[in-house]
Write a structure and sequence with these properties.
Layout: H1 4-23, H2 32-60, H3 63-94, H4 110-120, H5 135-146, H6 166-172, E1 179-181, E2 187-189, E3 192-193, H7 197-207
Antiparallel strand pairs: 1-2, 2-3
């Protein structure tokens, strides 16, 4: 078991890191491309520092000792990072005529961009989907994978489907030309239902070269 003092030290370290990373961020978003590229380059580090601070503050088991610092970090994170960034981001989204950007491909292109090419070269591919995995957590995961001697990892952003809920997100990753959102909130891909494992499996097999 880790000594509580270790988590206190780590909590203090990440509190300082959070303050440093947050002070370097201008939460104004001039356009969608800049917002995405800025988050990918360095804004996500604010989320990482906050997550690490909260984790170690919880593990330290010293609520009285860290309570004032925790309240300050949480207020700072919410009021000077999340709220202004979200507000400015929403303004840029409201200006769009189409939900697309040169800064990141659409999630609807996932199969054609990442799955189909290796299959056409007779390569095997495994897709692991984690619902609501934050980008900054994925960055850390990729970093940990690269630390293993036999593995490498890359990470690229994609523009999620809107509205961003699980059923539509899963359907967007399937091979398709067109998605249809029905009144009951279910999704069809090229006229075929995407509800249930069996339906999605049929769509996948139909989209795989050779139908394997």
């Amino acid at each position: 078991m880790d000594h509580p003092n270790k988590h206190i030290r780590e909590a203090l370290k990440y509190a300082a890191t959070f303050q440093q990373k947050r002070s370097a961020v201008n939460t104004q978003v001039p356009d969608l491309e800049t917002g995405i590229s800025s988050y990918v380059r360095h804004w996500h580090e604010v989320d990482t520092a906050y997550r690490k601070f909260i984790h170690h503050a919880n593990e330290a088991g010293q609520p009285t000792l860290l309570n004032e610092l925790r309240e300050g970090i949480e207020n700072h994170y919410t009021n000077s990072f999340l709220l202004p960034l979200n507000n400015d981001w929403q303004l840029r989204v409201d200006e769009l005529e189409q939900w697309k950007t040169a800064a990141a491909p659409s999630a609807s292109a996932f199969f054609s961009n990442y799955v189909k090419p290796p299959l056409q070269r007779d390569k095997k591919i495994v897709v692991i989907i984690s619902d609501a995995l934050r980008y900054e957590s994925a960055v850390e995961l990729a970093s940990r994978i690269r630390q293993e001697d036999r593995f490498d990892a890359e990470i690229e952003p994609m523009l999620s489907a809107l509205p961003s809920y699980t059923q539509l997100g899963m359907a967007a990753l399937l091979p398709h030309e067109e998605l249809e959102l029905l009144p009951n909130a279910t999704i069809k891909a090229d006229g075929k239902s995407t509800v249930g494992t069996g339906a999605r499996d049929a769509i996948l097999k139909a989209g795989i070269p050779g139908g394997a």
